[in-house]
Design brief:
4 helices, 0% strand
C-alpha cells in the first residue's frame, strides 16, 4: 500500500494521526480509541509493511 492509497482508505485527518503514530507519540491502543479498529489496523498494517 502506498501513502496515497492509505490516505484514500482512511482519510486525510486519520493520515495525520498516522504520522503521529509513526513518530511514536501515539500507541496503537490510543489510535484505536480515536479512529476505530478498522482504520487503526489499516494504519498499523501500513507501518508494519513499511518497516520491513
Amino acid at each position: 500500500m502506498t501513502q496515497l492509497e492509505l490516505v484514500a482508505e482512511v482519510g486525510g485527518e486519520a493520515a495525520r494521526l498516522a504520522w503521529i503514530y509513526v513518530e511514536g507519540l501515539l500507541t496503537l491502543t490510543e489510535l484505536v480509541n480515536v479512529l476505530g479498529e478498522r482504520k487503526a489496523m489499516l494504519i498499523h498494517q501500513y507501518v508494519s509493511d513499511c518497516a520491513v
